[in-house]
Amino acid sequence: MTDASLAEPRSPALNILLGPAIFFLTLALPIFGPMEARIGFGILFWMVFWWVTVAVDIKITCLVPLIVVAFYPYMPIQKVMQAYVHKHAFLIIGASMVTAAWAHWGFAQRLALTFQSKISNSVQSQAVAWFLFCAILSFVMGNTPVGAVFAPIAAAALAYAGYKTFEDRYNSPAASNVLIAIAWGASIGGMATPLGGGQAVVTLGLFEKYIGQEIFFLEWTARMLPISLIITAAIALYIYFFMKPETETFAGGDKNFYKKELKKMGPMSYEEKVIGIGFLIILALAVTRPLYVDLIKGPYFKWLHFSPLFFIFASALFIIPSKASKGEYLLSGKIMAQHFPIAIIFIWPAAVALGRILNKTGASKVFAGWLEPLIGAGDVAAISAIALGSNVLSNMTSDTASAGGMIPLVIASFNEWGGLKYGAVPFIWIAGAALSWSYAVASATGAQGIVAGFGANLKRMFVFGLGAAAISIVVTALYFILTVGVLELDFYKLPPV
Fold first, then answer.
1. Where are the domains of the chain?
2. What is the DSSP letter of 373?
3. 237: Cα within 13 Å, side-chain hemisphere
């Protein structure tokens, strides 16, 4: 695929009209279920079309659910407004505030130069490096925290290469590749361990309820890590060889150039140390939370969750004075105006809202029901259908919501599969794996909504995301056809013992 195929549309007025036209066409098609579900699908198609064509300002597209509810109350207006609010709002806003301070005091530049001095200035090498780094972290952290932490660092690195604004990054395939790679990496490891995010927690809980026994950390990881590593390798190769940017190298120079620039910065300043060490402490608390979570139960310890901690730390920066600039604080309104990624305030909540609306209107259930004809059509068909259905659903709506809808469907549909006592067990593993391969739409994961707020090109994310999803579906289906259908491994067919 060439970059010419991803060029901006020449008829913006037509694309503006096509958005609502697609919505009304969806309402007229019974295949999309009852009217409420059709509205959910219609909002999805409208928003995705406007996002990928950039028919209007991206922030305007984020208001489509509110535009629709103003004409037709498919949900109570207060419920639609609530859909834009998420428990991770503290995390997203707080992390963005902290990284605004990073940018002002040079800490972001230091991190960017450190990263660039270790990796070739090849665009594809850096994209793959970011992808692999975030993929490994996502084994033990949710996609939203990974995206919130590392998207701003990548943005700083890109600024050093000349992509200083949202528009610069949005219009550059090279810069977008890096941001998209971070989102994909943050998502791809979500099922590798039970700590990988909300979809893993939901799947684990429903799985344990079904088999009537606890699934331990190593039992889960032993089954999910192999397919996660295979998919990670496949998508890394896809990014490197197929997502061709407009330039092979970032401006600035080779690794030695970045090493020299890093040396010029000298030792870390007081300001850098405060905002950097504070951030690392909170990040360490987030990663190690499973080790101490049972010790901090109760209302008085709610603030120790990593989401409010990021916001608390960011707020504290407003009252910590600078030593380098008299009368200035580590964070201020002026610094926020210069460095805060305002687009994220619109795009990330809208992505969250879209996922919830699809769930509340019943659109997700309608989609899941389309898979029923393939149930009982044979092992290969059933495995392929679950891999495809789980992945497509997780690309439409949030992976956590997809897990909540897909896993019960799998349990109900395959309970007697193969005449086994625990007939649905292999298909829960299959669905669980495929739920994490979310690449195409900003609403699929928190990380994708975050990188969109920093300038990832949504059309590029969608087009190449479809290719990445296709690869992941095929690889997942083949892996489980081999292990479950051909080799008939009890490792996946029966509950862990």
1. 89-197+216-339
2. G
3. 7
